[in-house]
Model the fold of this input.
Amino acid sequence: MMTLDKKVEDLKVLFSETELQSKIKELATAIENDIPEDEEIYVICVLKGSVMFCADLVKHFKHPIQMEFIRISSYGHETRSTNNLQAIDLTLPDLHNKNVVIVEDIIDTGLTARFLTDLFKIKHQPKKLLFVSLLNKKCARQIDIEPDFFGYEIDDKFVVGYGLDYKGYYRNLPYIGYFPC
Ligand code: IMP
Ligand code: MG
Done:
C-alpha cells in the first residue's frame, strides 16, 4: 500500500494534455527552423524528468535524428533543488561537430542546465548546441542561464506530472499540476 502525503485528487491542473501537446508541436517547429533541413540532430533526453516531453517532441521532427539518454538527479526526494547534482549516467557517443539539442523538463535553480551546457561545450564541442526546457521557473534561478527554447514560464511552485515527479510518483500523468498549500 502506497503511503504518499500528497494525493492525486488534490492536484490542480496547470497545463492540460491538449495544451502541452500543442505547445510541444510549436517548440519542435521552432527548434527545427534553427537547423538546416538535411542535417542530423542528436537529441539528448535528460532522464528521468524529460522522458515524456522528449518522446513527444521527437515525434514532430522531420530532420534525421538520433536519440541519446543521460541521467542526472538534483532533487533526491525533496521538493526543493538540493544544489547537489548527481551525474548518474553521462555515457554519450562523440558529438564533436554535431547538432545537439538537450531536452529538459524544467529549469529551476539553473544548476543542471549550467552543468550540462558547460559539459557539452567543453567535452563535445558540438557544431550547434540548443537547450530546450518544457518549463522555466525563472524566479527560482540561482545561476544566470536561460534555455534557447522553453514552453512555459511558471511561478516558484513544485509541479508534477508528464515526467515530473514527487518522491518518484506522478511521472505518468498526461498533464502537469501542482498541490495547492
Ligand atoms: P535545477 O538544477 O535546480 O535547475 O533543477 C533541475 C531539475 O530539478 C529538473 O530537471 C527537475 O528534474 C527537478 N525539478 C525542478 N523543479 C521541479 C518541480 O517543480 N517538480 C519536479 N521536479 C523539479
Ligand atoms: Mg530534469
Observations:
- The first helix runs from residue 17 to 33.
- The pocket of magnesium ion (ligand 2) is lined by residues 46, 49-50, 104-105 (CB under 6 Å).
- The mean pLDDT is 94.
